[in-house]
Design goal:
The chain is mostly helical. The chain has 6 helices and no strands. The termini are far apart.
Length: 179
């Protein structure tokens, strides 16, 4: 009788440990996404200042500036899986702003622009690091969900895989600025 109780207790404790591990990984994924959100907020705050600085030096580049503003607005409104796609589009349009600076010596010499460019570059680096960390914790969660026997516990409690933060094909190509 005690043997059966001990076996049931061990199995129950194992399921509790696996469940708690899955919950912990889910919370790591949420925390990693919150880190990305923090850096994205910083990016959103820097973009209007960058746009105004560029607007003063490159007045006829209205289309480029408007595309950055539109991409920023779309990224701020996006949620769920669409958030990653919107952020990829914003990253792509930001590249065009920096490409503009190559054609405007006064813009390159503008201290405000240079400082904003440094801040935005720093933010982009932090976003990339946060994305990498997010993908690492998502991989851990997804791997645990797929492995036996934790896949049974995950199925029992409807714990599902998280989506990796992936860049699209457009983001892999350097921007082209045409005049």
């Amino acid at each position: 009788m005690w043997t059966v109780v001990a076996i049931v207790a061990v199995v129950l404790l194992y399921f509790i440990a696996v469940y708690n591990g899955l919950v912990s990984r889910q919370n790591q994924v949420k925390e990693a996404w919150a880190t990305i959100d923090t850096q994205l907020k910083r990016r959103y705050d820097l973009i209007p200042n960058l746009i105004e600085t560029v607007r003063g030096a490159a007045k006829h580049e209205r289309e480029t500036l408007e595309s950055v503003v539109a991409a920023r607005d779309a990224a701020m409104k996006a949620n769920g899986p669409a958030k990653a796609d919107a952020e990829n589009r914003l990253t792509e349009t930001l590249k065009s702003i920096f490409a503009l600076s190559e054609n405007y010596p006064t813009l390159r010499a503008n201290e405000n622009f240079l400082e904003l460019q440094r801040e935005l570059t720093d933010t982009e680096t932090k976003i990339q690091a946060a994305r990498q960390f997010y993908n690492t914790v998502v991989m851990g969660l997804n791997t645990q969900i797929e492995q036996f026997p934790s896949n049974i516990v995950a199925r029992m409690f409807n714990i599902t895989q998280a989506k990796m933060f992936e860049i699209d094909e457009k983001e892999k190509v350097a921007p082209k600025v045409k005049f």
